[in-house]
Amino acid sequence: MAKYFDVHPENPQRRIIGQVAETVRSGGLIVYPTDSCFALGCQLGNREGIDRIRSIRRLDERHHFTLMCQDFAQLGHFVRLDNTTFRTIKAATPGSYTFILPATKEAPRRMLHPKKRTVGVRIPDHVVAQAILAELGEPLLSSTLLLPDEEKPLTQGWEIKEELDHVVDAVIDSGDCGTEPTTVIDFSGGEPEIVRLGAGDPSRFE
What we know:
The chain is α/β, with parallel strands linked by helices and 206 residues long.
């Protein structure tokens, strides 16, 4: 059964955030809130965690996982950015955007696009997600919690606990999340390409 953590949305309890981080470090798969919708997350080197996410969402090998980063310094460790791209992305973070960029050698190989060698990265504008990332001291390997055959993500923590009780290790609930995933911008070809319209305003990339 999954642990259920009820976290204050503005002042996350440090003790609970510590327990969440320990769950991740010990190989657990968590569901946690972001500024777009709930996400599945595990530690970077957790191969079983990646496989579990693929299984829950029925994803193929072409799916872009996301590195959920605490800040821009952390993000820059895993992706390559030229000066123009740096300035464009910096102006849009934190926020409800996922950026697809060429990966550095530090990015886990199992989460790269098999042909393009790219990875998705984002910096969430969400107090609880930021608290978890700060406690971990490293990115969370993540994917939007959108179940197969469902048009919209689940928005209630208790509902997620009921639905995924035996396939995740913890559910972190800090109130309703939105139903719109991030806006995805692909910078791997040089110019920004809007791959998916979502919660983030795409106009700055058009």
